[in-house]
Amino acid sequence: MLARSRALLLVPALLAFTACVSTTKAVSPVKPESQRKKAPEFTLKDSNGQPVKLSDFKGKVVLLNFWATWCGPCKVEIPWFIDFETRLRDKGLVVLGVAMDDEGWEAVKPYITAKKVNYRVVVGDDLMANLYGGVEALPTTFIIDRDGRIARTHVGLVSKSEYENDLQQLLKQKSASAAPFELAGR
Questions:
Q1: Is 13 exposed, middle or buried (0-12, 13-18, 19+ CB in 10 A)?
Q2: Alpha-carbon dihedral sign for residues 149, 40, 95, 79
Q3: For 29-172, CATH number?
Q4: Alpha-carbon distance 115 to 107, whole Å?
Q5: What is the pLDDT of residues 75-120, one digit of tens each?
Q6: CA distance linking residue 77 with residue 99, whole number of Å
Q7: 75 CA to centre of own chain
Q8: What's the rounded Cα separation, in Å, for the pair 184 and 186?
Q9: 3-state helix/strand/coil string of 17-76
């Protein structure tokens, strides 16, 4: 009797599991092109005082990472981004860090030097965070396609393989237009 009641309980569980597996669809790692919005244009200075504009990277896939030197999950991601910049730069990737430290370059320069960060870093502020929808958690990363549109947003720490999958998918895509970046809101 006990074996029969266990079997009766097991059948609905197996049916439910099978139904979930068969109806689950693979979610696209990035937004379809028709759902992507233009990334807002900005100009900020890098550690050498040189202006950096998003439109400078037209035709490239941009990993735009908002981070801070005191942010634990950010410290986990930075070596991944250094690796991506090294391995994928020639395929059309640009990694760009936006440091959100209140102390600005005083905190950021020594950190990026010590960590041997090989990608460009700028210092952001509340205006920059608001431009990108009010970045409220760090890290927050926007992955921008070759046409300057936001294809994926990650809030918080995600796996290196998830970033890798997003980047590989976008690096395979060609630019839809030869026109320069459009400014958001136009």
A1: exposed
A2: negative
A3: 3.40.30.10
A4: 13
A5: 999 999 999 999 999 999 999 999 999 999 999 999 999 999 999 9
A6: 13
A7: 15
A8: 6
A9: HHHHHHHCCCCCCCCCHHHCEECCCCEEEECCCCEEEHHHHCCCEEEEEEECCCCHHHHH
- Distance CA(49)–CA(34), nearest Å, equals 36
69-77: which pairs have CB atoms within 8 A and are 24 or more residues apart?
69/99, 69/101, 69/107, 69/108, 69/111, 70/101, 71/138, 71/139, 73/138, 73/139, 73/156, 73/157, 74/138, 74/139, 76/157, 77/139, 77/141, 77/157
In the chain, pLDDT over 90 holds for what percent of residues? 73
Residue 117, Cβ neighbours under 10 Å: how many? 20
d(CA 157, CA 79): 13
* Distance, CA of 148 to CA of 144 (rounded, Å): 6
- The rounded distance, in Å, linking the Cα atoms of 94 and 130 is 22
